[in-house]
Design goal:
5-stranded antiparallel sheet; alpha/beta; 7-stranded mixed sheet; Rossmann fold
């Protein structure tokens, strides 16, 4: 069983036209729609089977186009298992880099996808109370973890740590808190061994699809993509078969959010804001009212620049 959704005080006191298939879903009686399973998928890329360097992870990498395929197939594996479990609605959040990674033409016609940054809830944009379960696909370890492949939290270039109420945060932990704000549990995480262990330690005994094992920041022992897809489908099926075992991770505000930068200058400038406090040379402290305000602050501090243009 996962740990209680109420955490101890010491830790936490968190466009296209509709196709005929989609229209047929909308035509279901309201009672059938209300009774159906609704699944939210947040997909990153560093934890996808076989990814190890920027060569797979960004548009300039020689393997990026291939790994967009691998990422898309892993999401499709989760979608297929969710459908088999009875899902009547599946929303997918493309949450890596520029958030334009998933191949939309490969998605089923009745699936909706969130693309592009910035957006208010970041990797969890679109989550709300109507969902029954959250799946994390392709997640990676946190910036403070010395053992994860491509380990970072929100920004590998700028952030050295993120803490909430004194607890070191992974992207999975932050996103679980956002889901928990709406009463939705995280039930599965896929990714590298360090990443799946971190998320499960924070959220509880959720299903884990560990598709690779770290040898270093840019090195791993990995499954093949086909084996990774099979494992993700298997673990998704297992997770959705025991939804009653999972509880959302709740968090009561106000919170204490600390963001530590690799450079001192962002901390100095952010401290000019009246609602920010400089905790040390590299760290700024905020006191968000809840997980949603926390998400908005993190989006601001990681994406704002005076040079932003349309």
């Amino acid at each position: 069983m996962p740990r209680s959704a109420a955490l101890p005080t010491s830790a936490f006191v968190t466009t296209a036209a509709l196709t005929l298939a989609a229209l047929s879903l909308l035509a279901l009686p309201l009672s059938a729609q209300d009774d159906g399973l609704r699944v939210y998928i947040s997909a990153d890329m560093e934890g996808i089977t076989g990814t190890v360097t920027a060569e797979q992870l960004g548009p300039t990498g020689f393997e990026y186009s291939r790994y967009r395929e691998v990422m898309t197939e892993e999401v499709l594996a989760a979608i297929g298992a969710a459908r088999e479990a009875g899902a009547v609605e599946i929303l997918v959040s493309d949450s890596h880099g520029n958030a334009q990674n998933l191949l939309l033409e490969r998605m089923p016609d009745d699936i909706t996808v969130i693309r592009g940054f910035p957006r208010p809830l970041g990797m969890m944009e679109g989550i709300d109370e109507r969902f029954d379960a959250v799946l994390f696909i392709g997640y990676h370890a946190s910036t403070t973890n010395p053992e994860g492949v491509r380990a970072h939290t929100l920004s590998s270039a700028t952030l050295a740590a993120v803490r909430v109420n004194g607890v070191e945060m992974t992207e999975g932990a932050l996103n679980a808190l956002i889901a928990g704000h709406f009463g939705v549990p995280v039930v599965l995480v896929s990714g590298g061994d360090a990443a799946t262990a971190e998320v499960a330690e924070f959220v509880g005994e959720i299903e884990q699809a560990t598709v690779k094992f770290a040898h270093g920041f840019h090195s791993t022992r990995t499954m093949t993509p086909a084996a990774g897809r099979a494992l993700i489908a298997e673990r998704t099926t297992a997770a959705l078969a025991r939804l009653d075992d999972f509880a959302p991770v709740s968090i009561e505000g106000p919170l204490e959010l600390e963001v530590t930068f690799k450079n001192y200058m962002p901390a100095e400038v952010l401290a000019f804001l009246p609602w920010a406090e400089r905790a040390d040379a590299h760290t700024v402290r905020f006191r968000p009212a809840d997980a949603i305000e926390m998400a908005n602050i993190l989006n601001f501090v990681t994406r704002y620049s005076a040079s932003i243009t349309p």
